[in-house]
Amino acid sequence: METGRLVRWNSNKGFGFIEPDEGDRDVFIHISTLKHMARKPHVGDRIEYVIEQLADGKIKAVQAQIEGVAVRTQSNKDKQQTNQSHQGQKSIKKKGPIKMQKATTASGTMSRIIIILIVLAIGRFAYQAYYDITNASEAGASGADTKVQEPRK
Question: Can you tell me the distance from the alpha carbon of 16 to that of 42, in angstroms, rounded to the nearest whole number?
């Protein structure tokens, strides 16, 4: 493990930079690396860490701890979850059935009236088309539309 001193820390964003005891480049550190510590870091803290180089050439601290600060013990809830995971059990929260929201009476009635009107309109147009077709074919067969010319004298 390497060591260094925390020279900058942004508590709002949860990150800072460590000045290594050996080396010239500052090392990035994120609060998630120190989540197991009993307190948050402060500028001037001595940090023990392992570095990891990123693809873009930057280096960051991983597996870090603050020197002289206790490691936080697991809470009862964390211990229960750890015990359950070791026993191969998963904690599954059961959810109740999804409840559908009923339409209000006015909107339900209105939508039914609209559907009935649409069906009636389609029926009326279909009947009119049928009526026109049947009357046209009857008129052609009876010759009612054709005028008979009388011979000229």
Answer: 10
Q: What is the pLDDT of residue 38?
A: 86
At residue 140, what are phi and psi to the nearest 5 degrees? -70, -35
Q: Which residues, listed in sequence order, are joined to residue 49 by a DSSP beta bridge?
A: 2
pLDDT digits (tens, 9 = 90+) for 27-39: 999 999 888 888 8
Query: Who's near 40: CB < 8 A, 6+ residues apart?
Result: 11, 31, 34
Asked if 58 contacts 28 with a C-beta cutoff of 8 angstroms, the reply is yes
What's the token pair of residue 105? 């009476």
Q: Is the pTM of this model over 0.85?
A: no
Contact 29, 50 (CB under 8 A): no
pLDDT per position as a tens digit, 88-104:
545 556 677 777 666 56
What stretch of H or E contains 150? none
For residues 61 and 51, give the distance between their C-alpha atoms in angstroms, rounded to a whole number: 5
